[in-house]
Amino acid sequence: MKNLGFGMMRLPLLDREDPKSVDMEQVCQMVDTFLSRGFTYFDTAYMYHGFRSENVVREALVKRHPRDTFLLASKLPSMFLKEEGDQERIFAEQLEKCGVDYFDYYLIHNLGTKNYETAERFGSFAFVSELKRQGKVRKMGFSFHDSAEVLDKILSEHPEVDFVQIQLNYLDWESDTIQSRLCHEVCLKHGKPVIVMEPVKGGTLAKLPERVSALLSAAHPDWSAPSWAIRFAASCENVFMVLSGMSDMEQLLDNTGYMADFRPLSEGERALLGDAARMILEDIAVACTGCRYCVDGCPKQIDIPQYFTLYNRAKQADGEELQELKKAYAQLGEHSGKASDCIACGQCVRACPQHIRIVAALREVAKTLG
Ligand code: SF4
Ligand code: SF4
Q1: pLDDT tens digits along 155-181
Q2: Which of 97, 120, 291, 342 is least surrounded by Cβ atoms within 10 Å, i.e. has the fewest?
Q3: Nearest protein CA to atom 6 of ligand 2, as residue
Q4: What atom in ligand 1 is closest to the CA of residue 341?
Q5: Whether 142 contacts 154, CB under 8 Å
Q6: Quick check: is 288 in a domain?
Q7: CA 370 to ligand 1 center in whole angstroms
Q8: Lowest-pLDDT range, 138-147, 206-215, 225-234?
Q9: Ligand sitting nearest the alpha carbon of 309
Q10: Ligand 2 atom index nearest CA of 358
């Protein structure tokens, strides 16, 4: 199995404002190209693309390719479990939406302290183990967004999982909040194979500050910025799959090109990425990945990630570019809640896997761009 997976959470859209408006024609072409280049792993989840991603998988992949030519992963949304029977209902719905009768990989989605409590209350590990026994799930795991300490606790209490999916990238490797290195070490300690999500940190490592690009280009002029990030993740011990949320054919051709014949990074190349990470951290104001987990529950309908995108650009801009960003900020406020509308209810902070101090950051956004 090749170690690059197609993440179906940032697919090309017909309308940039509407996450449900997936460009099916382009996705079908991307799926065909991905498979024709020998890659087989597809990753979806219940609520990606406004709950449409699993339907897209059925139309673009399942209906058009024999079931034994690809591996499909989906996830039990721990954050949506409210009452008895929800797990059974959601799993049945997922099989139907994807048009399959089993998942190759099935994960309890987005575990951290709070969602782990929910998963325990609903007996989610036993539920997925039973699905595995019935052949409806081939491998069980969970995706994880919390500290290494919490990960250690979960793996100690649930040694039955087959694998773990963690956030791992060279920018978060030494981070105090994401703790990529420490979480990776916990997986190794428990002997669990690792799937990597966010290797490019939601696109942050695809568009690098100029001085970082220059540093990396000097070592390998022909390597793209995202290729450095994906190679870093794939080079880590016991990582058997790296997910990339590919948004167009160009990204897919780039990714599948260098991953077709993957060679792990050398020590020198890894050290260079350590330098790059330090330089990027000096430049980024808010390390938002654009996952949008915070958006749905906001009582003021504030498009939080869009504001952070503008803000990060504004921190690097001046003159005319800054004026353009202020205009874009005003326009965004016409379609969504304004950054200054935030009532500090804290819903988004609890939902954010990056542990961003969203309320304070939105205040800064309003001050800078308002
Ligand atoms: S804290 Fe502010 S941005 Fe976050 S959900 Fe509440 S109102 Fe929305
Ligand atoms: S603020 Fe956090 S939850 Fe919201 S999009 Fe950014 S990373 Fe995701």
Answers
A1: 999 999 999 999 999 999 998 878 999
A2: 120
A3: 288
A4: 7
A5: yes
A6: no
A7: 18
A8: 206-215
A9: 2
A10: 1
Residue 87 falls inside a structural domain: yes
Please check whether residue 289 lies inside any domain of the structure.
no
| Ligand 1 atom 3 nearest Cα | 342
Task: Decide whether any atom of ligand 2 lies within 6 Å of the 306 Cβ.
Answer: no
Q: Which atom of ligand 2 is nearest to the CA of 289?
A: 7
What is the Å distance from ligand 2's center to 350 Cα? 10
Structure-token pair, residue 174: 């030494």
> Count of domains in the chain?
2
User: What confidence tens digit (pLDDT) does each residue in 226-264 have?
Assistant: 999 999 999 999 999 999 999 999 999 999 999 998 999
Can you tell me which atom of ligand 2 is nearest the CA of 352?
Answer: 3
Say yes or no: 219 and 129 in one domain.
yes
User: Which pLDDT score, from 0 to 100, does residue 362 have?
Assistant: 97
CA of 202 to the centre of ligand 2 (A): 10
80-88 long-range contacts, CB within 8 A, separation 24+? 80/46, 80/47, 81/118, 81/119, 81/121, 81/122, 81/124, 84/122, 86/122, 87/122, 87/124, 87/127, 88/127
Task: Kindly state whether residues 137 and 235 are assigned to the same domain.
Answer: yes
Ligand 1 site, CB within 6 A: 298-300, 302, 304, 342-348, 358-359, 362
- The answer to whether 285 and 326 have CB atoms below 8 angstroms apart is no
Q: Show the domain range for 204.
A: 4-283
